[in-house]
Amino acid sequence: MAVVTPDSCRETYDVIVVGSGAAGGQTAYTLTMAGATVLMLEAGRNYNPVAETPMFQTNGTAPIRGGATPDKPLGFFDSTVGGGWVVPGEPYTSASKNEAEQFTWWRARMLGGRTNHRGRISLRNGPYDFKPYSRTGLGFDWPIGYEDVAPYYDKVEMLIGVYGSNHGLENTPDSTPGVLLPPPKARAGERLVQKRAKALGLPVIPIHRAVLSVRQDADSIPAKLHPGNPRAQRILAEAMRQRAACFWATECGRGCSIKANYQSPTVHLPPALATGNLDILTDAMVREVLVDGQGKAKGVIYFNRHTGEERKISARVVVLAAGSCESVRILLNSKSARFPQGLANSSGLIGQCIMDTVGAALTGQVPLLENLLPHNEDGAGGDHVYVPWWLYREQHAGELDFPHGYHIEFTTGRHMPGLATAGNLGWLTGGSYGQSFKEDARRYYGSFLSFAGRGEMIPNKDCFCELDPEVKDKWGIPVLRFHWKWSEHELRQVAHQQKTFAALIGAVGGKVNVPPAADPLKAIRPGGNVKHEVGGAHMGADPRTSVTNAFGQTWDVKNLFLTDGATFCSNADKNPTLTIMALAWRASDYLLEEMRKGNL
Ligand SMILES: Cc1cc2nc3c(=O)[nH]c(=O)nc-3n(C[C@H](O)[C@H](O)[C@H](O)COP(=O)(O)OP(=O)(O)OC[C@H]3O[C@@H](n4cnc5c(N)ncnc54)[C@H](O)[C@@H]3O)c2cc1C
Ligand code: SF4
């Protein structure tokens, strides 16, 4: 394991990768398996999910029964050990004081970044999702289509392990047969929705999640992923054998010590380290990318997040994979006489058109699910089924008042009791107390259904980030200032989401505590709150109207690449991380080929 110190780093590397999350992990994996030497710089601390995951602790053993606190907003046992909504000493600002125009930013400063917590929902973008402008005249088309990314979706799904099934639905791509792992069975509440949603015309099908429902086929997958590279095949086979199948009992958000779910530090980094080609430097915050006299990237300046000590390190190629807005910040802070507006910014587009997912939710209580016999519904630590967007035809025919759709994720079941389990029952119990409250708590436990919409946001000129002219972080580096405004498209979509959720709750015989908000602005989650922020340096076919080419290579600096979500031209309803990884693998293949040809 080569977790190095500044003094034990090599003199120079083929590639510097900034960030160790989904993008950095995938990039480092692909490059090192092919023989390139890589230094990964990660701002957060070293983190080992195998040793550190609190898998089996019950909430009752934690302060306030594991409930959320300002420093652990996702609960005491959540895997995010560094960061969250607030990172001490590293603020960001909002240009507007208007609450509806605030952007919220979740940053995980730790090895593996946000992959340690993420819900592992792994949906492919479909063919329409790469061509939104051609289809609706809104947003931007990508310079690539589904067919360019499909082989990489297959590869990533085989590498990380994704459960799910194929249904041949419109714009909801099937994986190549044999790629997906079997999906878990639906839970009781999920089956109830599945049955009743049919009458409303909604399909409820297995979701795709990066969790091993069975062990991976370590005998055949490595040869498919690394043909002609027996060493990489051996290393990957060994790494796959170290991963166990899910035992359906714990919360994936805590991380997984048996490596059954996908986290960069358990899936991408171990084989990359085993090649001997990867060095990882943690607590190393990159401040800027350095350029030489010819305008090529020559390395980066980074500093130790604890001591502030600053160093330089060089490489043939620099890859930014720090999370889309963080990569934008590094580029904007990389100013020089040659690049006074920041690096790779001749188009002036760095920071423009950032997007999140459109999110809103509604919860209902379902009498049919009351007083169920005690049974284990923990399952795969997250969703088993979901509703893909189902109104493509109606929308295309102009029957809806908003463009681009949403899918529905939902939570049911009897999860490990926590602080909130028997809270807020007054509207059902009429304020029972003592023994009768205990009986009520048992009666209602597991009888709630929460629906959450995840919809496409159309990029708009009011949503962007830039360097704050005044505020700096504790090391004196300018921070990001966000501008945010939802458009009518998103607000109308949320109004539709709310109606659909209310109809679904009605269809299962449930009732809502709080009726759907009449004003969609009250129901929509703030910008950034779904934590799917992408864009800010989008790819394209023309250097005047985009920041990178179709491989994340910046037009202005040919040995500088972006492999995180910054290059996204649109943000489909599908959760972004599988696409980030597929594009990172594709960009890395291209980068390797360009290095081989001597172009970099
Ligand atoms: C609670 C939660 C649930 C989610 N659920 C899902 C889901 O179900 N499905 C899905 O697709 N997505 C989900 N996401 C989003 C997903 O986590 C991100 O899309 C994904 O992690 C992005 O990968 P990334 O590598 O670009 O960024 P990150 O995973 O954020 O990694 C970036 C890394 O770069 C480091 N870094 C930042 N700045 C610097 C710097 N200057 N120098 C050095 N290092 C730096 C950070 O510390 C971090 O480790 C979820 C996110 C959260 C927080
Ligand atoms: S539910 Fe399964 S994948 Fe998730 S943390 Fe538990 S064992 Fe790991």
Please give a structural write-up:
The protein has helices at residues 22-33, 49-52, 132-136, 146-160, 188-197, 221-225, 230-241, 264-274, 324-333, 392-396, 426-429, 434-444, 488-507, 520-523, 577-596, and strands at 12-18, 38-41, 83-84, 93-94, 107-108, 205-206, 278-281, 284-291, 297-304, 310-320, 358-365, 385-387, 406-411, 448-455, 464-472, 478-483, 511-512, 560-562. The model has no long low-confidence stretch (mean pLDDT 96). With 600 residues, the chain is an alpha/beta fold. It is globular and about 75 Å long. Helix 1 packs parallel to helix 15 (577-596) and helix 4 (146-160) packs across helix 15 (577-596). The protein has 15 helices and 18 strands. The protein binds flavin-adenine dinucleotide and iron/sulfur cluster. Iron/sulfur cluster is lined by residues 211, 246-250, 252, 256, 258, 260-261, 380-381.
Task: Provide a brief overview of the structure.
With 600 residues, the protein is of the alpha/beta class. Helices cover 25% and strands 16% of the residues.
Q: Ranges with pLDDT <50 over ≥5 residues?
A: none
Give the structural class. Answer: alpha/beta
Beta-strand content: 15-25%
Terminal-residue CA separation: 28 Å
* Rounded mean pLDDT score: 96
**Tell me about the biggest sheet?**
7 strands, mixed
User: Could you tell me the radius of gyration in angstroms?
Assistant: 24 Å
**Outline, from the CA principal axes?**
globular
Count of alpha and pi helical runs: 15
Instruction: Tell how many strands the DSSP assignment holds.
Output: 18
Which small-molecule species are bound to the chains here?
A: flavin-adenine dinucleotide, iron/sulfur cluster
* Fraction of residues in H or I helices: 10-25%
Oligomerization status of the protein chains: single chain
